[in-house]
Amino acid sequence: MHTWFYEKVKERMIRYAKIDTQSQAGSKAVPTTIKQFDLARMLRDELEGIGASDVFLDEKCCVVYAKIPPALSEESGKSGESGKPFGLIAHMDTAPDASGHDVKPWVLENYDGGDIKLNEKDNIIMRADEFRNLRAYIGQDLILTDGTTLLGGDDKASIAAIMTFAEYVLQNPQIPRPMISLAFTPDEEVGGLAKDLDLERLGVPVAYTMDGDHLGWYQDETFNASEAVINITGRSVHTGTAKGIMVNAADIAAKLISMLPENERPQTTEGREGFYHVVSCEAVCEHAKIRLIIRDHDGGRFAGREAFIGKCCEELKKQYGETAVSLQILPTYRNMKEVIDTVPDMIQDLRQAITDAGLAPVCEPFRGGTDGSALSHRGLPCPNLSAGYENAHGRFEYVPIQSMEKNVEILLALARRRAE
Ligand SMILES: [Zn+2]
């Protein structure tokens, strides 16, 4: 009844979901949590089992590598080696936002469009009128949680699809493909930006990350991102005798925050509109510290935003003295688009592959960053293909099995296109 792809992605997604790979924000350890190795080792063994070559687990940084050798194209009679090699990258960790411990995935077959009872005992229900994305999956088979943890389809739905794709092409040497390099990385959810991915070992000129929601979507554009850290020094004296002497750092902090335009905040912007966002503000009379993030797709406007924060600080220095305010701007990641535009066939091939699989490709500028943003600027152009999960980072996360199945088809089509 079900296809081989269906059975394989289902079995894999359920097996991977049960392994706790939650990463930890703020941890200086590499990887941020040691338990990510549990999945890394499983993937290494599995890759060896299906006959991938160059299988390697970096025991220091927890990155798994493997390669699929190129194959002759029967139609063209040409060697796949003359094609266009590419990489596929997915992350192993799950988000710290919800528990990833003791995940109990289960399958609801032939979803009827109604509310879904996730947990009988605690009466946890996913309501169809609250989670409207459910409508797109009527008649499909959903992998769900028991309502107490996340599922980890972000990003294990991608790993399940990539592994199934790899197993299939390795069993079918007649399928034309160029050399394909695989990598599974830790700590994406805590801003790891795939910093420990060894590009030399990956050994391909371009790659695709696989992550994100909605089947058939892809991203070739992300924000430019930086963080501004503003330290404010006040002068504290007894409040009863403060007149003309006290300088309250909290007041200055409030003033600075009020200078940020109201219509340029996350809650008032969408699409390609950039913003400022105060992440934290700690303040007492003597000292205040503001951390704010700056985001914009457009490089020029992004630079303008950083300059604007600088101007606000200068303004306050004029009022409160040169040493009252200090500003530090830390770059986070940059828009991948300028890099990806230098290899236009990457996106053409991806769009064509999505179309080959019977879907209409949807491209949206991503209002965030991906590991691919950083990798692109390290010299590995790296757009993103959706993983197909929904409601990530929470207890209502789910993955339609048919979406993973489709993603295997997209990867096969991509391999064929790039073998030509
Ligand atoms: Zn993810």
Strand order of the largest sheet: 1-2-8-3-9-16-10-15
Largest sheet: 8 strands, mixed
Helix fraction, binned, reads 25-40%
List bound small molecules: zinc ion
N- to C-terminal separation?
A: 33 Å
SSE succession: HHEEEEEEEHEHEEEHEEHEHHEHEEH
Shape type: globular
Average of per-residue pLDDT values: 95
Q: C-alpha Rg, in Å?
A: 24 Å
Low-confidence stretches: none
The number of distinct helices, counting runs of at least 4 residues, comes to: 10
Strand content: 15-25%
What is shown here, in short?
The protein has 420 residues and is of the alpha+beta class. It has 10 helices and 17 strands.
Describe the structure.
The relative contact order is 0.19. This protein is of the alpha+beta class. The protein is globular, with a radius of gyration of 24 Å. The model has no long low-confidence stretch (mean pLDDT 95). Helices cover 30% and strands 21% of the residues. The two termini are 33 Å apart. A hairpin with a 3-residue loop joins strand 12 and strand 13. Zinc ion (ZN) binds next to helix 3.
